[in-house]
Amino acid sequence: MAPSSAERGRSDQILDAASLVFARLGFGAARMDDVASESGLSKGALYLYFKSKDQLIDALVGRIVSAETQRLHDTRAGDGSVADRLAAFGRAFAAELVALGPLAPVFPEVYARAMRHATVRAAFQRYLAGFRTELGALLAEGRASGELRPDFDPDQAALGVVGLMEGLALVWLVDREHIRIEAVVPAALDHYLVGLRASTPPAWLAAQPAAEARA
Prior knowledge:
There is one protein chain. This protein is an all-alpha fold. The chain is 76% helix and 0% strand. The longest helix is centred in the middle third of the chain and has 28 residues, at 118-145. The N and C termini lie far apart (45 Å).
């Protein structure tokens, strides 16, 4: 049976509180008591929804990364060239990082815990699989249309894009004062695509105005 809207609302309330606690204390030091206090719920009520801290972390990771995968899916379904759609997704990805504000440190916590805990690692692997599937489909579309060259593996190229974006996010988290992530991510994606673009663009693409002119 699907959860009711009230149950989803309570679960989101707990995950919002957990995000604040984990960003403040880190996954290791945070306790379920801290999450209960932050959420305004009793510990018993918290355990009705999440039986352990690992289960809570798993759900939090799932919520964060499923939103990114859905955003990529929506971008892929949009209009424009593959390069334009990938740039649009890169801008949205960077904007979301900035909008997280004090919650942004949750991301390196996810990576660190994924290397040590099977539950978080499995959740993150599911994210990577979904993300690579969407990216690979977008790049395969560019290969089929002639926008991108025919002799590359879309899945391997998608993994490269994932590494590029996630790596830039981690670097930005360390030095947010000096890195403009909103500008860096789209530029880095464009540099990456230089190696994948067809030497002779298809007629439909050559006839389009430059992306800068359409913006």
